[in-house]
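Memo to structure team: turn this sequence into structure tokens by end of day. - J.P.
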Amino acid sequence: MIAVIAFHILILLLGLGVATRAIDAARVSNALGYLHNIIGITTPPPEKVRTIALVWIGTTVVIVDGCLVMLVFMTKLLS
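Reply from structure team:
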């Protein structure tokens, strides 16, 4: 439970850092470049980097929370 709370706090801080421009655009661009190269999709243009980073952060939260909800739901059904 502590790990889930810590994950959400860190993701929230990361999202706030990106949204408020506290994190340098070059760092965000490099991180997105690595992520997009691993997946095999084109990198976003420099003016869209922050928006795409926020989309990736939101998507990560939805996927992790969805997996946790399904895990809890499935374990309650099987017990």
